[in-house]
Amino acid sequence: MKTRAQGRGTRAIARGGSLAVLCLLLSACGGDGVSTAGAFDEGGASTAGPFVDESALPAAASEAAALLAEIDREFSPDQTLGYGRARDVLYAYEQDTYGALCGVYSNFCVTLGPGDESTQAMALDINAEHVWPQSRGARAEPLKSDLHHLFPSRVSVNSSRGNLPFGEVRDDRADAWYRDADSQSRPPTSGIGAWAERGEGRFEPPESKKGDIARAVFYVAAVYPECAEAGFFETMRADLLAWNRADPPDAAERARSAWIATLQGTENPFVRDPRLADRIWGGGPVTSAPPPVPPAAPPVPTSSTDDLRISAFHYDNAGEDTGEGIEVFGPPGAALDGWRLVLVNGSGGRVYDTVSLSGTLPPSGTRWTDTPGLQNGDPDGIALVGPDGRVAEFVSYEGAFVAEDGPAQGMRSVDIGASEASDTPVGRMLRRGESGWALAPR
User: Which uninterrupted H or E stretch holds 217?
Assistant: First the structure.
């Protein structure tokens, strides 16, 4: 666990190499965002002029390692607030600063009144997004409640992102688009840069938030190397570096970083000097993680938790329940071996059954699995779990709840907002569509 006995302002900094690195970190950017870098005088001040091409070149491995070590040492938070308190103050800050609480991915906005911020936000379809997913290492404190990577998000969009890596998505291969309260499966006809999109096993934020997201991810990778999955970061690195360059910090992002420092003791160094990312990661990976292996031709079916989702299910109908089951969808040919559907009782939050999947997805990209005894809700949930034990999705019907055991333990389900009843005609089911979940013919 990260702890710091002293605030950053009172730390004793050694001269020599450490001072030079810190001058790069803390003094390389002027207040107007114009960067300087280069030699330092005996007092530690930069003697270089405005930043030019030279410092943008990839850092040597030794320099990158030194920068990472110094960031980890000097920018780890003095404290975090705990997850519940962190959400409350985050929502209050957004409401007080901007007059509304807006989702980071879709710009879906709500207004909070007096009272408990988190309770109001959840009732209005807003929760807290961990830019670095909990299932990828952010489940434990203090990373779980570190405000530098927490953002408000519309619940359904947060669920859609899940634990997908960030990255560029080809518009013609995106299967979901989000903006404000809208969602659709086809590319928008105008203003496409304002939409978030999901596809190809990745999630792409709107253009205006790409730099913010990149710098939040850089912060986690640098300050929490013992928690953050190096391989997960490596899948995003190139796109994040490009986003960081194209969308530099604005006044709002700098103000947010400074505000967080008043609570946690430290800012996000990549907001203070966004060039640090290229210095550290611009020359290639600096971890021992192996590089991604390119797929063979023809493509090998994948079993990544980034690829499969629950697309339909049926649990209740008129008369004796019949035909209960769950459908998953994903890329045709995707391997299902090792995947599980974990059924969770909403009364107590405990697993009551597990259904194993096998084989591969057919050309339609969907597979229906019979699940006799799928409970009738009020509420109940379904967790789709990958071969590595990570939860790809945790949805529920007739309410939301927190799982108390099983692979989704500690996670709050996402209520689909639709349900079946004892008078639902036989032959109907709940299906995911462009506008959410609704009853549909089977």
Answer: helix 210-223
Q: Using an 8 Å Cβ cutoff, are 160 and 152 in contact?
A: no
Q: In percent, how much of the chain has pLDDT > 90?
A: 64
Tokens of 113: 């009144």
**DSSP 3-state assignment of 158?**
helix
Q: Is 159 helix (H, G, I), strand (E, B) or coil?
A: helix
Burial of 162 (0-12, 13-18, 19+ CB in 10 A): buried
Please report the pLDDT score of residue 69 as a whole number: 92
Query: Residue ranges per domain, the chain?
Result: 1-292, 309-441
> Which of 159, 117, 156, 168 lies closest to 134 in space, CA to CA?
159
Flag whether pLDDT at 49 surpasses 50: no
Q: Is the pTM of this model over 0.70?
A: no
Residue 426 CA to its chain's centroid (Å): 38
Domain 309-441 in CATH 2.60.40? The answer is yes
147-158: burial string, b at 16+ Cβ within 10 Å, e else: bbbbbbbbbbbb
Residue 338 to residue 405: CA distance in whole angstroms? 19
Q: Please confirm whether the linkage preceding 142 is cis (ω < 30° from 0).
A: yes
CA 437 – CA 414 distance, rounded (Å): 12
Q: Where are the alpha helices (DSSP H) in 224-312?
A: 230-246, 251-264, 269-272, 276-281
- The Cα–Cα gap between 233 and 241 comes to 11
Tokens of 167: 């990255």
Q: Give the residue ranges of DSSP H helices in 28-143.
A: 53-56, 61-75, 83-98, 117-123
Cis peptide bond upstream of 363, omega within 30: no
What is the Cα–Cα distance from 95 to 92, expressed in whole angstroms? 5
139 touches 81 (CB < 8 A): no
